[in-house]
Amino acid sequence: MQNDKITLKDLSIFTADGSGGVFDLIDRTTSLAGKDMLRKHLHNPPDTAERLIATQEAIKFWSNNLQLWPKIISNGTIVMLEKFFESADSVSAPPTGITLMMGAMLQKVFNKQQYFLTKFSLSHLSDFLKGCRQLADIADDHQVPAALKQELDAMNKELEHRLADKMMNVGADAKYAELAQLNYQARREMKSMIYRLIQHYARLDAWQSMARATVEHKWVFPQLLPALPIRFEMEQLRHPLLPKPVAYDIAFDNSCNFLVLTGANMSGKTTFMRSLGVGALMAHLGMGVAARSLRISFLQGIITNMHVEDNILKGESYFFAEVQRMKQTAEKLQQHQPHLVLMDELFKGTNVHDAYECTKAVMDGLLDHNDHLMILSTHLYEVAHQFADNKGILFSYFETEMDSDSSFRFTYKLKPGISNDRIGYRILQKEGVISLLQKKS
Question: Using CA atoms, how far apart are residues 320 and 329, in angstroms rounded to an integer?
């Protein structure tokens, strides 16, 4: 699956300050290396259905076996190892002569910092290798899926290094001469091997993180389907970031792949579209989703037209930015592989008549792309009515309950049909904007 930065921003996967987005819900990594790997995974999910299914099987395994994750490795362990090996290239000769003749007591007196740094570094190296050994042994004791076995076998291969067992068995009472020799040998011979192990560990850390988040939030693993025929079916799908979300049932296929949403501002259209996008993305990470059940075809990507920004430096207006984003969407839809397209209030940067004509033209064009899933929200109810007789379009709206005293409330319920709610003026009145403007100073 391919997703650009605009899509990830529109779906609130990452936030500007790096906190509070969907990523925070998923991040249960135990190391910065694992966090970086998880971030890369969100930017670049598996690129084929086969790799996605293999990744999902690995994450499912961890969701059922979280107790197997080694606790001996911490983020501090990996940070210490990286610092330890940063200076490996400066080690030119093994410790000899008086260095080896000096006992631990004299080393503590004359070279205290070096003595404790050596001992501390080797203890972290030992812990890391022991943790990797615990992981590698899982393949011997359990039936593990192919993708996980590949990582574990690769770790096991690295642990065949001639110094690995020595490092794991170094004791707390080891003499300084032994520590100095091991320190020299490790820096000279194990740097590349340890860095490769860190990469394997980071990938496993990202997988167990998604598994742990799935279990913690009581999400369910979706059923992954071939790309075509296109399908996206969900029961009780909800937005994972909301504390009290409303859940929705909806189904798409080739015969009905286009949903047009109408309803008042703040009634729930954008949140619903984000729920669809986040659910689809999480499914394509191989992890659980916030729903009772979900079935989805393998998608080539998610395309959003939600919060377009103008570019003052380039002299591009908001409307021109909207047009360019729609052009990018049209180019992606030329591909045969299916995409999920989320369009929220198109052409807000022009007048109502232009917006009507442009939206109508876009809808006409989109109807020819049956292998893609498309959701469009609009306030231009007249456009929706133009296509009301088209059997290939699903029309739904978010209900707003009106009272006789001109007050209103949002139910966030999705109902079939086209809305005719117009409450913009009521909102202005309710918030006191009209009376404030009419007030003379």
Answer: 14
Predicted confidence (pLDDT) per residue in 377-405, tens digit: 998 889 999 999 998 899 999 988 877 77
Q: Is the peptide bond before 229 cis (omega within 30 degrees of 0)?
A: yes
Residue 428: pLDDT above 90?
no
Length of the chain: 441
Determine how many CB atoms are found less than 10 A away from the CB of residue 193: 18
Are 109 and 115 in contact by the 8 Å Cβ rule? The answer is no
| β partners of residue 395 | 260
The DSSP secondary structure of 294-322, one letter per residue, reads EEEEPPSEEEEESS---BTTTTB-HHHHH
Domain ranges of the chain: 31-217, 223-438
Q: What is the band of 113 on the pLDDT scale with cuts at 50, 70, 90? A: low
- CA 236 – CA 388 distance, rounded (Å): 26
Structural contact between residues 428 and 434, judged by C-beta atoms closer than 8 angstroms? yes
Q: From the CA atom positions of the chain, what is the Rg in Å? A: 29
**Residue 24 structure tokens:** 């925070």
Identify whether the C-beta of residue 342 lies closer than 8 Å to the C-beta of residue 301: no
The per-residue pLDDT for 19 is 63
For residue range 195-214, what is the model confidence (pLDDT) as tens digits? Answer: 999 999 999 999 999 999 99
| Structure tokens given for 367 | 């109807």
**DSSP single-letter state for residue 299:** P
Does domain 223-438 sit in CATH 3.40.50.300?
yes
Give the CA count within 13 Å in the CB-facing half-sphere of 141: 8
